[in-house]
Amino acid sequence: MIRRHTLAGADNRRLAHLCGPLDEHLRRIEAALGVTLTRRQQQFRIDGAKAAVERAVLVLDALYAQAQLPIDEHRLERLLADDAPLGGAAAADDAPIVLHTRHAELSGRTPNQMKYLRQMLAHDITFGIGPAGTGKTFLAVACAVDALERQGVQRIVLTRPAVEAGERLGFLPGDLAQKVDPYLRPLYDALYDLMGFDRVGRAFEKGLIEIAPLAFMRGRTLNHAFVILDEAQNTTREQMKMFLTRIGYGSKCVVNGDTSQIDLPKGTDSGLIDAERVLRGVAGLGFTHFSAADVVRHPLVARIVEAYDAARDLEGRA
Hints:
Distance between the termini: 49 Å
Strand order of the largest sheet: 8-7-9-10-6-11
Radius of gyration: 22 Å
Order of helices and strands: EHHEEHHHEEHEHEHHEEHEHEH
Number of strands: 11
Strand content: 15-25%
């Protein structure tokens, strides 16, 4: 089957992003779908089996809808996956939300990541729940940096519970600040990636960014701040309630966690699981659930997550 598909009103910049350097994206579409692609300006000639040609048309349309910025290989791989949602329903949500940071411009790579960004913009409190590697922390920090750059908030507050994953905090060297620093390191890493080492250091000196263990949040009211609670699966019910009631005027709050990696003592309920149950119907809150399909680290990470999920399901049925 041969089909000619025209992207009406296409501009050269978006077409260049769609095709990739030296038409690399078109060659990857050919290899993945078993079609032959040639282009003359905004018209594409697609040759192959009927189902593959129709899939290629949907992929081209979805890529063009997201081509405001260069298309990275991870996003292309998602679109080429057999179960990737394409077509009319997806097209309505395809216009990417772009986060502007001094170090980079970012947007969601998967449908759930794009939903997560929209939830953070639309709600004062947003929950991101899912496995490691799905971008929960990084995108939340990127939203916070974007809000700070636009002066939408006056400061960023990052926190997480200092719960050991099999190790003992007391055996670490140094004072309290040095003991809790390893627990907050993923938050530092995200800031350094987005802002650069020097700018992060200056922001700390000016009080524009604060990182603290969750226990230090008690008794505070956080106004005009972008507040992120990471590793929220390791909060207790009482800690979660305490944290959520710290939010003041002009603030946004993001709560992230992976309910499959709870390090609380046996018999202690996770505050994240409890909050999802209790707050599900509360207006002004948003919930985004991630899965292995949203993992944007090494492809093996997604397969590892899927294997553990399958084993847990088998144990649950046993």
